[in-house]
Write a structure and sequence with these properties.
By secondary structure, the chain is mainly alpha-helical. It contains 11 helices and 3 strands; from the N terminus they run H-H-E-H-H-E-E-H-H-H-H-H-H-H. The longest helix is centred in the middle third of the chain and has 24 residues.
Length: about 260
């Protein structure tokens, strides 16, 4: 396969990319095996860690030169992140990092508490051996991703919650949940980054499935509501202008 354009790496103009935020200059060039997927992974890591600030403007030209890839490949990477709700495309101005406000946190958190609280209750009330296996596999996938420092930890987290929604047996509930999945990515990514693996994010998720496995619908619903109340409070405090300390840019990890 010949992709000459993707591996042509022109020298970066002296003044190019100054409008970008700190963090872009530290991005590693993509390898032959990765192209738009690795570019998206590295950008995603910088976005959810806060090394690229919310609301920052991204340009295809600067990113293409930084990664040594074509603008088309970078555009595909950015489109991946648009589909995940991490970036928005502005007509005539380019790409912009999604901004999560305290009000966004409140809206998404209260909505998740209602939908997933009900899903947890329903899943507990109809729990069976197959469902227990599905829950065990979902939490194990999160543990594996965390242990390996896998870039798919966000995907494993989303899959965990979607598994519980699916086990509710309520198709209309699942359809409504799917409508907000992309909007949830930044919420979940921000919450995970704030709490961290060492801060107990896995343990918090294990607490969610215990009442479901026991078939206790009341306890399951309350566990989800408490989970999101806690997440909302932590995220809202973090995003509050008077409390949040700006994060300094640092080198990004290699793929």
């Amino acid at each position: 396969m010949t992709i000459v354009d993707d591996f042509y790496r022109p020298s970066q103009p002296e003044n190019e990319g100054k409008e970008l935020m700190n963090g872009i200059a530290d991005l590693e060039p993509a390898t032959k095996q990765s192209l738009d997927r690795v570019a998206a992974n590295r950008l995603r890591d910088a976005l959810v860690s806060g090394r690229i600030a919310a609301g920052a403007r991204l340009t295809e030209i600067s990113l293409a030169e930084q990664f040594g890839l074509s603008r088309g490949t970078i555009r595909a990477a950015l489109q991946r992140l648009v589909s995940e709700g991490l970036i928005v495309q502005r007509p005539y101005t380019g790409w912009e990092v999604t901004t999560l406000t305290p009000h966004d946190v409140w809206e998404l958190g209260t909505l998740r508490a209602s939908l997933e609280g009900l899903a947890g209750r329903l899943a507990a009330e109809r729990i069976a051996d197959g469902a227990r296996s599905a829950l065990t596999n979902a939490i194990r996938a999160m543990e594996d991703a965390a242990r390996d420092e896998n870039e798919d930890f966000l995907a494993a987290d989303l899959a965990f919650h979607r598994t519980i929604v699916g086990l509710s047996g309520n198709n209309r509930l699942a359809q409504h949940y799917d409508l907000i999945t992309n909007q949830l990515r930044l919420y979940i990514a921000s919450s995970n980054h704030l709490v961290g693996i060492e801060g107990g994010i896995i343990a918090r998720h294990q607490e969610l499935i215990q009442p479901i496995l026991k078939g206790d619908g009341d306890a399951a619903e309350q566990a989800f509501r408490s989970f999101f109340q806690r997440s909302n409070r932590e995220l809202a405090d973090f995003l509050a202008p008077t409390r949040r300390e700006p994060e300094k840019a640092g080198p990004l990890s290699k793929a």
